[in-house]
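Encode chain A's predicted structure.
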Amino acid sequence: MARMSRKLGHFLKKAEHWLTAQVSLAALSLLRRLPADKALGFAEKVARTIGPRVSRHKLAVDNLRRAYPEKSPAEIEEIALDMWGNMARLAVEYVFIDKLFDFDPERPDEGRVEVDGIETFLRIREEQRPHIFFTGHIGNFEFLPVAAATFGLDVHVLFRAPNNPYIADYINETRKSVMGGLVPSRAGAALQLARILDDGGNVGALVDQKFRNGVRTTFFGRECLTSPLIPKLTRQYECDVYPAHCIRLPGGRYKLEIGDKLVLPRDENGSVDVPRMAQQLNDITEQWVRKNPGQWMWFHRRWG
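Encoded structure for chain A:
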């Protein structure tokens, strides 16, 4: 009986995922028929209406209050609304990613995407050694590996697949068509990234998620756990590490920035100091978020 119950539960969960995916993908297919800017605007309007009614809104507002104790309730609510609008745009941008990312290195001033750090991309492409890029859940972080590919730079990206396997398959296929290699965030991912670096390849990762048993750090003055993976790989391979992020601009435009390579904190033996580097990554991400707070995912449990 217990075995039958487990099978039934598995079947019902699978059916739920399938139905959710069909509805979601059908909605995205309909949006695909619209001009990109109209579809994005429509999705943002809907999200700004529905977002405050979902349970995660309360978590987002609570996180914002703790991060910005000096802001009024109205200011906090406006940032939360901006967040929902940006999250909706991120979802729809998957559908139009081949149209939206129109940056051409030969004509850098003609498209809707501008890149700050072109010379850095070009220099890294010519270097015969491994590199690490990091970013956060801000703006359209999916544009970063697309930009690298545009410059002929192969970057293997560590990603966490959605819980819904049908939606995960759709996103993975979309990513593969315009990005470099993808490394699922699961058991064995660290070894896979290590092999890529060992072969002189490049890897990219998001660094602003809660990581159970991670390094104790702070973010917006609050204690949190941060993954030590990127600092440990940096220590092992002595890689150059670059910060990069992409924000949305008014008028349906985007700005991608890649910064100078980090000056890495080191211990008394000259090795990369893992806890201090984890904090360094948090501090840089916090700077990005403070400049554009409405473009970060405040509804996830970074601190909890």
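The chain has two domains: 1-33, 106-295.
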